[in-house]
């Protein structure tokens, strides 16, 4: 068996794949299939592409049905489900706030920030209606959807699915801080990945995870942020205030069966914070690790090495 690694650009970052296959494996076909899989997700769900299917939904008038691809319906449905299960901590309906604060395609705007903060907000699961049988969606009031807290995880799942169709039974697939492991390495060991220390200046491991047929995602306050009046503000939005979280954990790492769910739950845990997040995670049986600057706490039945 030969060790293969490949990567490429997607969603403002890079995707990667690590796996073992015979020496005569068709590398070019595999790279194209994986690139196509993540490109399709970006084309459907990007807020940076004016022509994306998500932006068509955002531009629609309340009450107007919009036909959308099956993959987008899947992600929207999971987003609404996790939004309800998290008590609104995860909310895909914060596109106006994300954009206003400069985390989208447009620069930050004081006027739009003020509008986002004063807006009377309903959770997305009370506004968006999905008709999966007909392949369509509609919103019942004005709302701008943003899938940055879940689309990369889904992209990893699609990357993994493309690998499986190529006959790859084991490997490690990733987009940014979202990863999914298939099977084990040739020697029977799981796939080893690191949870990063929440440090702006350096990249160093805090914890080591050994993964087998699970996904992991990390959301944090130390890579994507803006400086406002000398204060660093995280890219993760407070669903109630329409602004970046004021006192988020340094990071939250979640393990789940699929990367889409791990990605969304990691965002939800950042919003909930350590105390409420750990309580909910224990109820759900969801492995989670919180890092504060200088300390950590998590649950997970030994899945985390700290």
TrEMBL record:
It comes from Rhizobium altiplani. InterPro entries: ApbE (IPR024932), ApbE-like_sf (IPR003374). Transmembrane segments: none annotated. Its EC number is 2.7.1.180. It comes from the Bacteria. It is an enzyme of class 2 (transferase). One of its GO terms (molecular function) is metal ion binding. Mg(2+) binds at residues 149, 263, 267. It catalyses: L-threonyl-[protein] + FAD = FMN-L-threonyl-[protein] + AMP + H(+). It holds the Pfam family ApbE. Magnesium. Can also use manganese. This is FAD:protein FMN transferase. Its cofactor is Mg(2+); Mn(2+). Belongs to the ApbE family. The keyword Flavoprotein applies. Keywords: FAD, Flavoprotein, Magnesium, Metal-binding, Transferase.
